[in-house]
Design goal:
Pfam families: TLD. By secondary structure, the chain is α+β, with helices and mostly antiparallel strands. It has two domains: about 10-185, Recoverin, domain 1; about 205-390 and about 395-400, no CATH class. Helix content is about 35%, strand content about 15%. The chain is built from 15 helices and twelve strands. It has a seven-stranded mixed sheet with strand order 1-2-12-3-4-5-6, sandwiched between helices. Strands 7-8-9-10-11 form a five-stranded antiparallel sheet, with no helix packed on it. A hairpin with a 3-residue loop joins strand 5 (about 300-305) and strand 6. The longest helix is centred in the N-terminal third of the chain and has 17 residues, at about 20-40. The chain is elongated, with a radius of gyration of 24 Å.
Length: about 425
């Protein structure tokens, strides 16, 4: 009789709790109790305002996240069971389940159409969380116009009957996530405790001499956040300006000289005479070589007029190029990434006055500029300041370039991105 009168079990909750350890469930319960107390609900539920304030998800994105977390009941009450079920799907689910959840999350207007206005609202939330009204570290205030480059990377391939707005399919969305991994990280960590160093929230601190005019710098905080989406947390803490053509001149020798004291990764940025901005992440030092070198941590990117990242596909190991004072036409002098000699994914000649960018299978990247032949107006290079281990010595790279390439490729296979730009 007693069992017959018991309330029916929630199968979703019963399944969800199995995704957590006992300690994780206790932590979730503690958070819920605290937020419910702030909501004035006698411990029964968390209100939307308290939910959004705690998780620091503003605007329409925060509203949609609360709606999904409350199973779309629209009663304004987040129960403990809701929190457990949502986090089980959103953080503990399969990759497909997580991306389906984020895809629904981005439909902030709730009309079933993931359109440009929805993605703009998402990017505006990024702006509110990370940049506005903070200074971008160079004396400039972040502007929403800069963030439009991330929307420009999106494709909207689905026609919607009865609507003038085209919709982003799930395939379109997954492609956008691979091109703008910082946005994917941001959207995938919104229910993590806000003070835990959430992925997608890291913005590198940009260091440069105080006598360098802020307005001449190409790299903005928003661009650094975008590039950092393809890096580890340790690599997005501090970046230092090593070379700027407006200060040091368009000089290959000066470029190499300024970088000779550092052995860490570098962020190369080019603004050409068409106004396009793009570059490459060099995971290895710029050392004189007669052939390609580097590892699978290298990648190419666009910053303007749209922002996209192109990571190695594993098609070949033609990753990084640095040739100096060679007399053979088969070994072009300059620096580059991907493709093949004389037909690179990105290349700057040793004179630093011209170069080219072609579509290449190394990174599955398109021509990065308006035309294949490029004429740089500004070249910047930033050094990634690596953390020093407790023993005081940077960790040495082990094995040959090819061995490291194979190791990196195996790691990429494990996370499912070796054969795509994701």
């Amino acid at each position: 009789m007693g069992n017959a009168q018991s309330p029916p079990a929630d199968p979703l909750f019963d399944t969800a709790i199995r995704a957590f350890t006992t300690q994780e469930l206790e932590d979730l319960k503690s958070i819920f109790v605290s937020l419910a107390a702030q909501s004035g609900s006698n411990g029964k539920f968390v209100s939307q305002s308290v939910f959004q304030a705690y998780f620091r998800v503003p605007g329409l994105l925060g509203t949609k996240l609360f709606q999904l977390a409350t199973q779309k009941r629209n009663d304004g009450m987040l129960l403990f069971e809701d929190l457990v079920v949502t986090k089980a799907i959103y953080e503990k689910g399969s990759r497909d389940e997580i991306e389906e959840f984020i895809y629904q999350l981005c439909d902030v207007t709730g009309d079933g159409i993931l359109g440009r206005s929805d993605i703009e609202a998402v990017i505006n939330s990024v702006n509110e969380c990370l940049f506005y009204p903070k200074s971008d570290g160079t004396g400039l205030t972040s502007h929403q116009n800069v963030l439009k480059v991330f929307v420009n990377a999106a494709q909207f391939s689905e026609k919607v009957e009865g609507s003038s707005e085209e919709s982003m399919s799930l395939a379109d969305f997954r492609s956008w996530c691979s091109l703008v991994p910082s946005a994917r990280k941001f959207l995938g960590s919104l229910l993590m405790p806000p003070d835990s160093g959430r992925p997608g929230y890291q913005v590198p601190t940009l260091h440069h001499s105080e006598d360098i005019p802020a307005e001449i710098l190409i790299l903005r905080k928003e661009y650094a956040w975008h590039i950092g989406g393809a890096l580890s947390q340790d690599e997005v803490e501090d970046w230092k300006l090593l070379y700027h053509s407006g200060i040091n001149g368009l000089s290959f020798s000066t470029f190499l000289g300024n970088l000779s004291n550092g052995d860490g990764p570098t962020v190369l940025i080019i603004k050409d005479n068409e106004g396009f901005v793009y570059g490459g992440y060099a995971s290895q030092p710029w050392d004189r070589q007669s052939d390609f070198y580097g590892d699978m941590k290298c990648f190419l990117y666009q910053l303007y007029p749209k922002a996209s990242i192109f990571r190695p596909t594993g098609a070949n190991n033609n990753l990084q190029w640095c040739a100096v004072n060679f007399s053979s036409d088969s070994i072009p002098n300059g620096i580059g990434f991907g493709g093949r000699a004389n037909h690179f994914g990105l290349f700057l000649s040793a004179n630093f006055d011209q170069g080219h960018t072609f579509p290449c299978t190394t990174f599955n990247s398109p021509c990065l500029s308006k035309t294949s032949k490029i004429h740089p107006e500004v070249i910047e290079c930033w050094g990634v300041i690596a953390k020093v281990p407790q023993n005081g010595k940077p960790e040495a790279l082990k094995g040959t370039v090819l061995e490291r390439f194979k190791e990196d490729r195996n790691m990429l296979k494990m996370v499912g991105i070796a054969n795509s730009s994701d």
